[in-house]
Design goal:
Arc Repressor Mutant, subunit A; 3 domains; DNA-binding; WH_DNA-bd_sf; D-Maltodextrin-Binding Protein, domain 2; sequence-specific DNA binding; two-stranded antiparallel sheet; DNA-binding transcription factor activity; single chain; transcription; alpha/beta
């Protein structure tokens, strides 16, 4: 089958990104009726429906979703290819990442990056959800995982590492001397499977589902605050809490630091790999990590 008309593909790509005929029409400078006509031509050519029309919204069919991602990526690459060389003269780099990495490591460094790139507006957003680059106004993301995200370029940044931390007062109160003493102490988010990894590497038996109730918090930042308040032992990344360790507000009682096979990665659509702002940010991150080995 030959490639469908570019006008129809252009309309499909815009509707697929926005999931809205109205917003697609505004972006393309067309009427909504003209966009609907192009979609209908494409559906007739393919012999399948691409969208489900509902009263106040639309949704992609299974076939529409199958065609949407490569089409969006292709237009993203075209936009990148034909953008002006000075397109980054005044632009925005929108970064999405998980709250702990943002608050404990990245945000203190973004000011330095902004000073190095005064013409680049930088916006930081935090979320535990994976970014859908086709529908969200996000330039790059930093996520934890194994680096395998189809359609995305992924650059390894650092390993996910963790070790128990607590206040000196709590350690003294429970006479913490060796890892086995942790088993009788309040552990924050005791059901976290990483506790099992750390405990077993320390030579201890630790059930996959701890029998006693405990405090469960949504992020490492919240766990660190609870630990600072003396409510228990948190499993934290030493790199992210160096200030607390340096000031003695938290202590790392044992030298063992464990990994779970996951890492933090800088990710973005493959079509954006030559975007100047992303190249600058990638180089900045790698330089910062090289000078901060953990």
């Amino acid at each position: 089958m030959s490639i469908p008309p570019l006008a129809a593909l252009r309309a499909f790509e815009a509707v697929a990104r926005h999931l809205s005929f109205t917003r697609a029409a505004e972006e393309l400078g067309m009427t909504q009726a003209a966009v609907s006509y192009q979609i209908r031509l494409l559906e007739e050519r393919l012999g399948v429906a691409l969208f489900l029309r509902k009263t106040r919204e639309i949704a992609m069919t299974e076939t529409g979703a199958l065609f949407a991602r490569p089409t969006i990526e292709a237009f993203d690459l075209l936009r990148e290819t034909y953008s002006a060389p000075s397109a980054d003269a005044v632009s925005t780099l929108s970064i999405s990442t998980v709250p702990t990495l943002a608050g404990a490591w990245l945000s203190p460094r973004l000011g330095k990056f902004q000073m190095q790139q005064p013409n680049l507006a930088v916006r930081l957003e935090t979320s535990d959800n994976l970014v859908d680059f086709a529908r969200e106004d996000v330039s790059v993301a930093i996520r934890a995982g194994d680096g395998d995200w189809p359609g995305l370029t992924a650059h390894f940044l650092m390993h996910v590492e963790y070790t128990p931390m607590l206040t000196p007062e709590l350690a003294k109160k429970h006479e913490l001397r060796d890892p086995a003493d942790l088993l009788r102490m309040p552990l924050l988010d005791a059901s976290d499977p990483n506790w099992g990894v750390w405990m077993r590497e320390a030579g201890l038996d630790y059930p996959d589902c701890p029998p006693r109730a405990g405090l469960t918090l949504s992020t490492d930042l919240h766990e660190a605050r609870a630990a600072l308040a003396g409510y228990g032992v948190a499993l934290l990344t030493p790199r992210f809490f160096r200030y607390e360790l340096a000031t003695g507000s938290l202590i790392q009682p044992f030298p063992q630091v464990s990994q779970n096979g996951r890492g933090y990665w800088l990710v973005y659509p493959q079509g954006r790999k030559n975007r100047p702002a992303i190249r600058k940010f990638r180089a900045f991150l790698l330089d910062e990590i090289e000078s901060d080995p953990g």
